[in-house]
Amino acid sequence: MSPAVFVLAMEVDVRIAHARSLKDKRQVVKGLLEATRRRYGVSAAEVGGQDTWQRAALGFAVVASSARQADEVMDAVDDFVWSHPELEVLGAERTWLE
Fold first, then answer.
1. What is the extent of the structural domain holding 32?
2. Is residue 11 part of a domain?
3. Is residue 50 pLDDT above 70, yes or no?
4. Is 62 exposed, middle or buried (0-12, 13-18, 19+ CB in 10 A)?
């Protein structure tokens, strides 16, 4: 029997109210994505809203050996995103991948 693999993805829609240019937005987004990758070992990317100044869709994914472990990592990522005062989280959606 092969070991189980659990893959959990999350898309977070955010608003960056103080961004007055794409450069302002990308600075915030890039820093957040890099910190999330480094701290939690997840894959992370801007997956939508690349051409808008104040909105972004951020995608995160984790691969784990148990569903519980994947959930715990994604809970921590979710908390980390919410902890950034320069972001307004507009919504988040999780999806289990097969």
1. 6-97
2. yes
3. yes
4. buried
What Rg do the C-alpha atoms of the chain give, in angstroms?
14
Q: Which SS3 state, helix, strand or coil, does residue 2 take?
A: coil
**Contact, 60 vs 7, CB < 8 A?**
no
Does the structure show a pLDDT above 60 at 1?
no
CATH at 47: 3.30.70.1120
Tally of domains in the chain: 1
Q: Distance (Å, rounded) from C-alpha 25 to C-alpha 6? A: 32
- pTM beyond cutoff 0.85: yes
The DSSP result for 9-64, as a single string, is EEEEEEE-TT--SHHHHHHHHHHHHHHHHHHH--EEEEEE-TT-SSEEEEEEEEEE
1 within some domain: no
Residue type, 34: E
